[in-house]
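Example 3.2
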Amino acid sequence: MSEHPARRSADPWWTLAWLGLVLAIPLRLAFFAGFGLGDDPNESFAVIGFAERLRLNPADFMHYRVINVVLRGLLYRVFSVNELAFVLPILAFALGTHAMSIVLARDLLGARGAFLTSLLFLVTPYETLASTANVPDYIHAFFGVACAWAAYRGYHRRSDRYMALAAVFLVLGLLNRLSMVLLVQTLGVATLCTLRQWRRWVALWAVFAVLVGLVCLADFFYSGLPYGWIANSSGGMGGLDVTRILGFELMVYPRYVFHHNDYPNWMFGLTGWCALLGALLALGRAVLRRAGGAEWFVVLAFFVFVALFELMPHRLTLHAYWSHPRIFRYLAQVSPALYLSGAYLLDRLWALGPRRSPVGLGAVLCVAVALFGLQQTPRVAEPLSDANRDCRHLIAFLRGIATDKPTPLFTDSWRVALIQAQYPRHYKAWMLRGVGADSKDEKVRFLRSVREGLVITGGATLPWYSGIDLIVSLSRLDFTVPPSWTLLREFDGKLTSWRVEPLRVWSVKGEDSATPAVHVDTSQEPKALFAAGMASFDRGDCPGARPYFQAIIDRSPPAELAPDGWYFDTICRFRDGDWEGTLAGFQELVRRFPGSIYVPGAYYHMGLAYAGLGDTARARQTFEYVREQFPRDETVSRMAAERLAEMPADREAGLLGRLWKRLWRR
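Structure, written as tokens:
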């Protein structure tokens, strides 16, 4: 391998490379996605919890994604919960990844290659789609590119300092998401391919081992488990058995990169094809023994790093292939490798062509790629921006009509998650009830069960994650709006494949007003309120008990019995089959009162709620957490173990999987 000579800093290509980064900023903001993917209440509660206490909670698995939680938590602390604080770290790391890739490309390909890399970042529709959405994968993408740059420089300059710096970037990436381990494996392959120069790698692996040891030691004092940051940071032992649909599963990412996406548009434009052809060209030169440092880097980046990302299972048994869902946002961690490979192709073909031709083949391809990418960018980014506009209008409207008395709110499960994520203290105004996308009949039963409250229907679906069936669209159901429903607000938008009708908010008035409301004297002492609530609770009268528990919860400052009121109020939601409300209530209880005696039971019921929603993977993870973290609570631990034994996935883990888990626990 030989390092490409650096060009002069005044090179116009170098200036154009940074101009591409500057132009990327207004382009990203023009298609701002904001809260469009902010639908994970676990993540939102984790960030809000850190913002309030400025302490990481070892009982919250999301807090092991340290960099994501800390950065967003600090911004929430300063700006409160809003789209700026939510998206700013993502945009900053996306632009940082762009900048770091320019620096790396200059070392690999020279100033013109740096410009071409920057151009592909600018014109590839995926970057505009993902840079202002909930894509924390950009954080470890940035550290991955920085690690690759430092390792490349360290190898060619025989510099232990750069190699040590690469190890630091590697561990920082692991502290954001465990998928950074793919880069560890790629560096391992690079080391094996250059064993004759093994001394150049000693500093990297030595510093990496020391830093991992220090992280394990810190985690031991933090949580009592030296490997908690591994087990909790990304659920690496989780996922679903996709053996029966493996062909479909393995085609999701290639379809995004090389062909039409869901809507259909070209998410990566022509960049994916440039990357593939560039990787094949580099491989050919390597086979012909004409490869330099750039060729070997491209071969490793594409045929090792990207291939591991696509093919490596999250778990493999003798009869099953396990993988998490293939979601478009995960591509952020490998997209820089695609842009570098594409830039390599364009750079090598730049001057290729007839002798008298004023421009080469690479320049012509560059123009075609740029024009096609810019033409596709609005189409690719529109679904997510459109969904975010719906969410923004809905949250603003709900804030405007909220009262001190919690009102039942019925909608699809995605919007329940969005409200939980974006609406602090939503539980004081709304009692959330959600329905999944399982069947139209279930949605009809859900709508017919509404007696009083608000109902949200229609609007844009969750782009890229789900189809239109996720939304409760009245035009797709055998359901006639009853006379008791009144349309409060309608947010219109163009009809597309992701929106078949306007977003509507309905008010439903109860037809039977004979049942008097429970009157609660809130001036009573918390003990008296709790006793009255428990009297109704023990009789099975949850509607009569909840107002007393709510009165305890609403006390300011919090009453001594606040954890008790919160726990039994949420148990009432659990008894009513309100799985989303159960999760929201117990997540808030754990966040507010992490030392409460009710925490083990809260986690156990969260597992039951996940099971009720059909989310077997999260149910399993929660039950395993209960069994491992609360062994002293014998009742809850035993019930969690019984639930795990009843789950089919536990029996399908295989002998190797059970042996691996047992070794980890020891």
